[in-house]
Design a protein that fits this description.
CATH superfamily of the largest domain: Regulatory protein AraC
Structural class: alpha+beta
Largest sheet: 5 strands, mixed
Distance between the termini: 59 Å
CATH architecture of the largest domain: Sandwich
CATH topology of the largest domain: Jelly Rolls
Strand content: 15-25%
Shape: elongated
Number of strands: 11
Oligomer: single chain
Radius of gyration: 23 Å
Length: 294
């Protein structure tokens, strides 16, 4: 039976790896200082940022298995599951981890905007690989939070100071991820062709007959990406959402079929719509005219 550590408190994980408990809502662990550590498959009830300087292991995350690259930053959110099942092996990891509980956020600006940090739901193979200077900047933030928790545990300003550092870390991560999208070696046209190829193959294989119209989640999976990462990538490359891109593809395909003489019902069925009325509404939204006018 798979052994899972339920990390409902930030200190559930700290106790597991033998790190000190510094605060009920925030934990900062420096892996380099641990005497020994074991694998752990975790089910998270907290937010986490893992700055992995050295971790030559394959972890389970986002429904797949991924190699953790040295020098990567990975983020997890409540409700997610990741790691490696404990098999009793003693392992050695270098880097940092910051865990913070959702109860730290009520009434703060961060509570309102944390949903906008999509990288919390990226897969580990989409993690950021910071430059050396960026790594040092991130590491200083982790160390500063730990120092605040250690040296000023009862200070009335502690929560605001720690939240400021966490907000800084998340903004840095957001900057790095945005740069990652823009710096990829696949341009707008190349990426569009990749998506088109997935969609063409979807219909060539007849998947619409059992699955209906293609979804963002399906396309992301075919490209080995998480839905959020795929959506951010599509928006960066094409200027529109992944849902809009798929809709444009479907409606252009529908227009060609209508011009070839197929009926609205035939086109709707062939594309995987549940009802011709749904297809008609989408077509009119796309082109401004009903499909019967084509």
């Amino acid at each position: 039976m798979e052994r899972v550590l339920k990390v409902q408190s930030v200190n559930d994980y700290a106790r597991y790896v033998g790190a000190p408990s510094l605060h009920p809502l925030v934990s900062v662990i420096h892996y380099d200082e641990l005497q020994q550590c074991r694998h752990c498959l975790c089910e998270y009830g907290v937010y986490g940022l893992f700055l992995m300087k050295e971790s030559p292991y394959t972890i389970q995350y986002g429904g797949g298995s991924h190699d953790v690259k040295a020098g990567s930053l990975m983020c997890v959110a409540p409700g997610q599951k990741g790691g490696v099942t404990d098999n009793g092996e003693i392992i050695h990891i270098k880097g940092w981890v910051l865990l913070f509980h959702p109860d730290l956020l009520p009434g703060t600006t961060l509570q309102r905007i944390i949903k906008d940090y999509h990288f919390f739901s990226y897969y580990s193979n989409e993690a950021l690989l910071p430059t050396q200077d960026e790594w040092l900047h991130l590491e200083r933030c982790f160390a500063a939070i730990r120092k605040e928790l250690t040296d000023f545990p009862d200070d009335t300003h502690l929560k605001r100071i720690v939240l400021s550092y966490i907000s800084l870390l998340l903004e840095l991560a957001a900057r790095f991820y945005e740069r990652q999208f823009k710096g990829s070696d696949s341009g707008q046209n190349d990426y569009g062709r990749k998506i088109d190829s997935v969609l063409e193959r979807y219909y060539a294989d007849g998947r619409q007959l059992s699955l209906g119209v293609p979804t963002v989640r399906y396309c992301a999976g075919e490209l080995c990406l998480s839905p959020n990462y795929f959506g951010d990538l599509v928006r960066t490359r094409t200027g529109e959402s992944a849902t809009q891109y798929i809709r444009h593809f479907l409606m252009e395909k529908a227009k060609s079929m209508l011009l070839e003489g197929q009926s609205i019902t035939e086109v709707s069925d062939a594309l995987g719509f549940d009802y011709p009325q749904h297809f008609t509404r989408m077509f009119k939204k796309e082109f401004g005219v009903a499909p019967s006018k084509m």
